[in-house]
Design brief:
By secondary structure, the chain is mostly helical. The chain contains twelve helices and no strands. Helix 3 packs across helix 7.
């Protein structure tokens, strides 16, 4: 008997290849991230010119944090698959319910592929520019050590998975409220603050950092950047990767349970 293969890797591959075709959007994204990166490095370098001192977060580390943030923005930002949101709003989701496929896994694969394809097109030019500025005080530095770089690659993967898991909850809220723009904007503002996008988390007060650590958002991206620059110890990185994985497993289980429950009560309107 022919063994049936899982459709989800094929779904991921299809959406990843399709995402690579949007080179025009990628170019505009690169220009936006470069502009925003320069604005941030000039803004935050002012802190150091006025005597800001933090032995665990120096100016070179700060500059690397910002350039990495811009390079991998598409990986960790709570971007979504517009096709899924459209299906939720116009009733196209009804077709998903009659197909012999796990909707959560399908949405997850397509969303993750979209995020990864966007990051693939954008990250390298920004990394090259950051290293080209390494001779100045606003450039990207080399990783703190080889182990830090290896763990950095690990956290890119786990951060991508965690950010996709969080996006799945956005789809569920859109299903409940049928208000896509408000939901997406709300989640992105919360994520932007708690993940260190608006202000790097190492610059925040210690009490605020402790509070942020109780939420999953900082584990999508901040852990990745701090691993690269070595602002936290290797042993602490290992512990936080464990927390990151725990968030992934926990939120994925909860998300599947909630979505299955919602599908049992879903009402499709339209004609």
């Amino acid at each position: 008997m022919r063994k049936l293969s899982s459709p989800y890797p094929k779904i991921f591959k299809t959406h990843f290849i399709a995402g690579l075709a949007y080179r025009g959007a990628a170019l505009s994204g690169i220009l936006t991230q470069v502009f925003w990166g320069f604005m941030q490095v000039l803004l935050f370098s002012t802190l150091f010119s006025f005597g800001h001192t933090n032995p665990n977060f120096t100016q070179p580390q700060m500059m690397s944090y910002i350039w990495l943030q811009q390079a991998f923005m598409a990986t960790f930002y709570l971007s979504f698959n517009s096709e899924i949101v459209t299906d939720i709003l116009n009733g196209g989701i009804s077709y998903e319910l009659v197909r012999p496929i796990n909707v959560y896994n399908k949405w997850f694969a397509s969303t993750c592929a979209k995020k990864l394809s966007a990051a693939t097109l954008r990250f390298l030019p920004i990394i090259v520019l950051g290293f080209a500025l390494s001779g100045t005080n606003i450039g990207l530095s080399l990783p703190a050590s080889v182990p830090n770089f290896v763990l950095f690659l690990v956290t890119i993967f786990t951060g991508l998975i965690l950010s996709t898991v969080i996006v799945m909850f956005i789809y569920m809220v859109v299903m409940k409220t049928l208000s896509d723009k408000a939901c997406i904007s709300f989640f992105n503002v919360i994520h932007g603050f708690l993940s260190g996008f608006f202000m790097p988390i190492p610059l925040m007060p210690k009490w605020l950092q402790d509070i942020i650590s109780f939420f999953p958002f900082r584990y999508t991206s901040d852990l990745c950047y701090q691993t690269y620059i070595g602002s936290i110890s290797l042993s602490q990185i290992g512990i936080q990767i464990g927390i990151q994985v725990a968030w992934i497993i926990g939120l994925m289980i909860i998300g599947k349970l909630i979505l299955n429950r919602m599908f049992k009560k879903v009402v499709v309107q339209g004609g």
